[in-house]
């Protein structure tokens, strides 16, 4: 299958492209810069110059491929307005991708976060939140899954709060970079809240399986660690960086603060059973041992 991949040179995208190429697919990778284009070529993908805002480029990419994996997102969490702008850009891009695929029965694999449910681990059957700081992404994903009624084999891979590789990535990566900047390994609140996690190489396998076999309208959980306590994550970061571990207010993390403070374990039992997906790489706490002082 020839696959259009957006965000193919990021931490997750690099793993997804390698997984696709290693399993007989070819890749057309959307690239925003010359450096990204060179990285895509070096990985074995063909670069397609453009970004999520280049809607005509997206349409042209769909016309040249057999399916799409969407990963790109402008990760600007500096303010609620910046986050809303990034979500609006992604929504416009996904709308174009979906319209271009309508009636073709070709796959469109998009991405969201795992939902959170008070008092228990969320499952694939739980709906995405459609309010709060990232509620717009939930609404857009729901619309994309609804394209199953219009001849699009649309599926969604729900990623946990931390997708990691070699000690970097996701919410844990934000904690690490904030610790480097402030001199304190901060723990939002009392740290008893739990965050799910997955290694990027394991997540990449699930994206491929969803592309190849995911039924239209289905959602899957790329969760390896059901829920690591944030105090344990902060403790490893503090030890690796030689910094004190302290509780900090959630507003220290801007618009993501309310999400950081939420207990949000998640299960992937149905995904494992239905698609035969089994994570094989190190869990988050072990992978954080790769953080360099």
UniProtKB/TrEMBL annotation:
So which domain of life are we looking at? Bacteria
Return the annotated region ranges for Disordered: 113-137, 262-293
CDD domains, per database record = SDR_a7 (cd05262)
List compositional bias (Basic and acidic residues) regions by residue number: 270-281
Q: Which organism is it from?
A: Streptomyces ortus
InterPro entries xrefs: Epimerase_deHydtase, NAD(P)-bd_dom_sf, NAD(P)-dependent_oxidoreduct
Could you tell me which residue ranges the NAD-dependent epimerase/dehydratase domain spans? Answer: 3-217
For this entry, the protein name equals SDR family oxidoreductase
